[in-house]
Design goal:
This protein has 233 residues and is α/β, with parallel strands linked by helices. The protein is globular, with a radius of gyration of 17 Å. Helix content is 43%, strand content 17%.
Length: 233
């Protein structure tokens, strides 16, 4: 799966918005790419809020004509860890099905962005957690880190686990909550580079509106033309 870039991070770090920004950026550069969220939870919430699912947003922003079930094979009802949400729905997540759908998308686009679940060690599919799944797929990785002590601690722990597993990763710091403490932001950037021994691609500022358009503009200055070659960025 060498066409995969998995976008990972803690809950609320802004993974979905980053992917939407990347999809728009790819279309702007004339090289459309695809996106996939293998397992999503919270369909009840989407329905009650009359809100498009993340996969539907990927479909619209990326101009992807494929059926939404290819982009998101499993949309589970409750906002719970994936394995438990699947059990509540009376189904089991099939890893082979996920890989088949991702490979189908991979045959249509030069690169596929895959949004991972929050964290790394929570059971994901069958007997595997997300970290073990990443070890099987060995994709390029982007880790999204929010601002704050808890985000920093969880990111340092997660980056350590990824590197111990032989996976290289690039970092995006996302100020999705509007932190105004410049010293804290600078400290977090320097700490991530020093302690995690990983490259920070850049800092995404806080946006009040036009989130996808603003995200696209911010990423344009961080990701090389014509499309991310993260091994050399």
């Amino acid at each position: 799966m060498n066409t995969l870039t998995c976008v990972c991070g803690t809950a609320g770090s802004g993974k979905t918005q980053v992917i939407l920004g990347m999809l728009q950026l790819a279309r702007k550069r004339g090289t459309p790419i695809g996106a996939c969220k293998p397992v999503d939870v919270g369909d009840i919430d989407y329905q009650s809020l009359d809100q498009a699912s993340d996969a539907e947003c990927f479909q619209e922003t990326g101009g992807m004509p494929e059926h939404v079930s290819l982009i998101n094979p499993y949309l589970l009802n409750e906002s719970l860890p994936p394995q438990l949400a699947a059990e509540r729905d009376g189904i089991a997540i099939d890893l082979k099905l996920l890989e088949t759908r991702i490979n189908e998308l991979g045959s249509l686009y030069p690169r596929i962005l895959v949004e991972g679940p929050p964290g790394l060690l929570t059971p994901f599919v069958e007997s595997r957690n997300w970290l073990e799944t990443l070890q099987m797929w060995h994709p390029q990785l982007i880790w999204i880190c929010g601002i704050g002590a808890e985000d920093l601690e969880l990111s340092l722990l997660s980056l350590h686990l990824l590197q111990q597993s032989g996976l290289s990763v690039k970092i995006l710091i996302n100020n999705s909550k509007g932190c105004r403490d410049r010293e804290l932001i600078q400290y977090q950037w320097l700490t991530l580079e020093e302690k995690a021994e990983a490259s920070v691609l850049g800092f995404i500022p806080y946006f009040k509106n036009d989130l996808v358009g603003q995200m696209c503009s911010a990423l344009d200055g961080m990701i090389e033309e014509p499309w991310p070659n993260l091994e050399t960025s």
